[in-house]
């Protein structure tokens, strides 16, 4: 997929002045963001030293309570968090295989770090265009696999999720064969409505969990690896070896904590808005993926290639001051796919507002 750089530049220029934007939360400019964090910081907040003590340790305790797990480790990225967990499991079990869905972030967006950098091997499970199932997991050879990574919601297929029954069956298979079950929970904050269970109840099925603090929660960056004390002790060592243990992480933790307080309780509203919006979009003739979204996100497939789609988005923003979709993230068979994550910006307007302007943009 190729979108000319000039189009991308103009799109991002329009983002700065648009009166309405459908995607995620409004992002303040750099100066305002730092001012807001400064005002948010408490007198009792103390900086950490290499991730130990102060605000980092306090936030890790908060995350442990939220997921009802004994230990957590704040890390700069999810790429580091998940690979560290897999490396630790491999060292303990003596097996170096990891079960991954074809759309896993580790396969698509990390330049094969899991194999090239961490020395582990990938074992495929499932099919790219559908959610992972327990039947897919059972095709793995447990003598070769130290862990499986289960993503929910599954970003590359529009936020689709494995069923709860499938998760229970996966858990049973992993327990039977002494295979660790890890949750790629980058967007797990959105999943409680679909599963009708708390974060702690979902986490109970997994040996370890990764969560992101910037995608849905508006943080600057940052992730957490959550699990047992036995996992976190070597994980701290491996994160240090990999360069993921800077002198301090307090600005990112401040931002993560602020985002958690601001957005976590709003997730049910975002999910409900998504359901209403996508029902209306489907009725208006738009192709939604999945057809019935389960999270506060979805994909929309348009009958234009990526460049033409970008041109239409930019032209509409120039004329109306409204960003009706983010730029395409993929293109298949000359059809562009855009990803929408619903947050506070979308909720500033009724679903009918977005349907009207999407229809006008692509009429």
Description of the molecule:
By secondary structure, the chain is α/β, with parallel strands linked by helices. It is built from 15 helices and 13 strands. The chain has helices spanning 5-17, 30-40, 54-67, 78-93, 105-108, 113-116, 134-137, 164-177, 192-195, 199-203, 229-241, 250-263, 267-283, 306-320, 351-361, and strands at 20-21, 71-75, 97-100, 121-124, 145-151, 180-185, 208-212, 223-227, 287-289, 297-302, 322-323, 330-332, 335-341. A 7-stranded mixed sheet has the order 2-8-7-6-5-3-4, with helices on both faces. Strands 9-10-13-12 form a 4-stranded antiparallel sheet, with helices on one face. It has a two-stranded parallel ribbon with strand order 1-11. Helix 1 runs parallel beside helix 14 (306-320), helix 3 runs parallel beside helix 12 and helix 13 (267-283) packs across helix 15. The longest helix is centred in the last third of the chain and has 17 residues, at 267-283. It starts with a helix and ends with a helix. The mean pLDDT is 97.
């Amino acid at each position: 997929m190729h979108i000319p750089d000039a189009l991308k530049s103009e799109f991002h220029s329009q983002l700065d002045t648009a009166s309405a934007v459908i995607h995620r939360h409004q992002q303040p400019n750099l100066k305002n963001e730092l001012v807001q964090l400064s005002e948010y910081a408490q007198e009792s907040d103390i900086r950490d030293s290499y991730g130990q003590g102060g605000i980092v340790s306090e936030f890790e305790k908060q995350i442990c309570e939220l997921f009802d797990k004994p230990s957590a480790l704040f890390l700069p990225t999810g790429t580091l968090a998940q690979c560290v967990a897999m490396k630790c499991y491999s060292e303990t079990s003596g097996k170096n295989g990891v079960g991954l869905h074809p759309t896993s972030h580790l396969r698509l967006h990390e330049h094969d770090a899991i194999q090239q950098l961490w020395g582990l091997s990938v074992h495929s499970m499932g099919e790219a265009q559908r959610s992972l199932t327990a039947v897919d997991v059972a095709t793995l050879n447990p003598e070769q696999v130290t862990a499986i990574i289960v993503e929910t919601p599954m970003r590359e297929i529009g936020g689709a999720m494995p069923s709860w029954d499938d998760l229970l069956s996966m858990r049973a298979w992993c327990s039977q064969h002494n295979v660790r079950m890890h949750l790629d929970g980058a967007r797990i904050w959105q999943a409680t409505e679909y599963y009708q269970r708390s974060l702690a109840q979902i986490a109970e099925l997994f040996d370890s969990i990764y969560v992101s603090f910037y995608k849905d929660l508006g943080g600057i960056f940052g992730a957490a690896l959550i699990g047992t004390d036995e996992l976190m002790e070597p994980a701290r060592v491996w994160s240090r070896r990999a360069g993921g243990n800077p002198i301090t992480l307090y600005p990112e933790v401040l931002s993560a904590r602020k985002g958690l307080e601001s957005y976590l309780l709003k997730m049910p509203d975002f999910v409900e808005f998504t359901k209403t919006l996508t029902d209306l979009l489907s009725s208006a003739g738009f192709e939604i993926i999945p057809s019935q979204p389960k999270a506060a996100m979805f994909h929309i497939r348009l009958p234009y290639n990526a460049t033409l789609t970008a041109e239409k988005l930019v032209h509409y923003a120039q004329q109306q001051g409204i960003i009706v979709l983010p730029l395409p993230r993929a293109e298949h068979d000359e059809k562009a796919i855009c990803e929408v994550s619903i947050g506070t910006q979308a909720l500033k307007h009724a679903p009918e507002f977005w349907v009207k302007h999407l229809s006008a943009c692509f009429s």
